Amino acid sequence: MSSSTQQPAGESEIARWRKKIGYGQPPVHTQFPKGQSGNPGGRPRGITVGRATGLILKEIYRLIHVREGDKVKKMPTLQAIVRNQLTLAAKGNGRAPRDVIAMVLAIEQTLAKAAAVAKAAQPEDTRECTDMDLARWMLSVLESGAAQAEAADKADKDEAV
Questions:
Q1: How far apart are CA 72 and CA 63, in angstroms?
Q2: Is residue 79 part of a domain?
Q3: What total of structural domains would you count in the chain?
């Protein structure tokens, strides 16, 4: 074998790389390792319920400028909407009073459910304390405190003797 036909070990690898490099075949050292994506985060998915809810809440609590007569006030969008509905209801708009009443009923139902849950969470042995019960408890605390003070005074006198 002549030395011209033999290639050094390093050159053969370079020759193999050159054959592989081209359109759709980037150099091996620039390719992503197996099992690793080139875009780990990926393209964001479409709007999900959670993202839509977050967007709506962000906008509903955003401060906007509202003109009231000659004054301009900043208030959350939700507050401006509620004020507008109440104004329309007071003026006699056909649908606005129904919407306002439905909104108030929904809020009252939510508050009633929350109160029922809170009441159910209380232990059954607790009861409301009347003024008379409170007075009796305070009297017993004062009497026990006075008795302890008398016992301490007696003990001090015994030690002094």
A1: 12
A2: yes
A3: 1
Instruction: Say if 130 falls within a structural domain.
Output: no
Number of Cβ atoms within 10 Å of the Cβ of 68: 9
Contact 66, 75 (CB under 8 A): yes
- Kindly report the CA angle at 126 between 122 and 128, in degrees rounded to 5? 105
User: For residue range 48-69, what is the model confidence (pLDDT) as tens digits?
Assistant: 778 888 889 999 999 999 998 8
Residue 133 forms part of a structural domain: no
Residue 60 · residue 80 · CB < 8 Å:
no
Q: Is 129 helix (H, G, I), strand (E, B) or coil?
A: coil
* pTM strictly above 0.85: no
